[in-house]
Specification:
It is a single chain. The chain is built from 4 helices and 11 strands; from the N terminus they run E-E-E-E-E-H-E-E-H-E-H-E-E-H-E. The radius of gyration is 18 Å and the shape is globular. It is an alpha/beta fold. The chain folds into 2 domains: 5-97, Translation factors (Elongation Factor Tu (Ef-tu), domain 3, Beta Barrel), CATH 2.40.30; 111-231, Rossmann fold (3-Layer(aba) Sandwich), CATH 3.40.50.80. The strands form 2 sheets. The protein has a 6-stranded antiparallel β-sheet with strand order 4-3-6-1-2-5. It has a 5-stranded parallel β-sheet with strand order 9-8-7-10-11, sandwiched between helices.
């Protein structure tokens, strides 16, 4: 883990009405594992500082890192990062951080990813790392969102036909969707992957993560094969 480094915003991409992909140039970035995160530090003109943690959304490329940021209403930092930080502006980052919620390409066990809302970000890093490494490790993604407009990285997810992806809509399902809108249920996890070898990664709001972890254990997934990351 490195200390604080200067990071320059070079690209901002809209993912949803409130979700953004932010790419920062960090020339001395040491590299990271899929699933790790960074701390971002902002310093105001009067010296006031604020620090927040954000997940890395993919492998480092050409001295850049990508973060996923949800603009939280009345938030102190996320709305500024998501929409107001000018291109070319500098912030500070520290990382990579975290060694538990990670996936390595040399791992051969099947992988089950379960995301709630913006919790897709570190799981997206795993999906992208898998593709970059050109491994055939079996991956399945269950992605829970309120409605179709809240899906992050939709086009990219739909393009990757080597990953089985199942969307769960909790508030409003699209026309033609057989599953009615509602919270994720045991039926949403039926027939996904062998439970005795599968590694599970769950990320999302605290209540969502606790609910899904309970479902996985009830379904027979070993507790020591379930790794969770939560926020909120």
């Amino acid at each position: 883990m490195s200390g604080w480094q200067s990071a320059r915003l070079v690209r901002r991409t809209d993912l949803t009405a409130t979700g953004r992909s932010l790419t920062f140039a960090v020339p001395r970035w040491p590299g990271h594992l899929a699933g790790q995160h960074v701390d971002v530090r902002l310093t105001a003109d009067d010296g006031y500082q604020a620090v927040r943690s954000y997940s890395l959304a993919g492998p480092a490329r050409d001295g850049t890192i990508e973060l996923g940021v949800e603009a939280v209403p009345r938030g102190e930092v996320s709305p500024y990062l998501a929409d107001a930080l000018p291109l070319g502006a500098q912030v500070e980052v520290k990382g990579p951080l975290g060694g538990w919620f990670v996936w390595r390409p040399e791992s051969r066990e099947p992988v089950l990813l379960i995301a709630g809302g913006s919790g897709i970000v570190p799981l997206m890093a795993m999906l992208r790392q898998r593709q970059s490494a050109q491994t055939d490790t079996a991956f399945t993604l269950v992605y829970s969102v309120r409605d179709p407009e809240q899906v992050w990285y939709r086009a990219e997810l739909d393009r990757d036909k080597t990953v089985r992806t199942r969307y769960v809509y909790t508030r409003r399902a699209p026309k033609g969707e057989d599953r009615p809108a509602g919270r994720i249920t045991p039926q949403d996890l039926d027939g996904l992957l062998p439970t005795e070898q599968t590694r599970c990664y769950v990320c999302g709001p605290t209540g969502f993560v606790e609910h899904v972890a309970d479902l996985l254990i009830t379904a027979g997934y070993p507790a020591d094969h379930i790794r969770t990351e939560r926020f909120g």
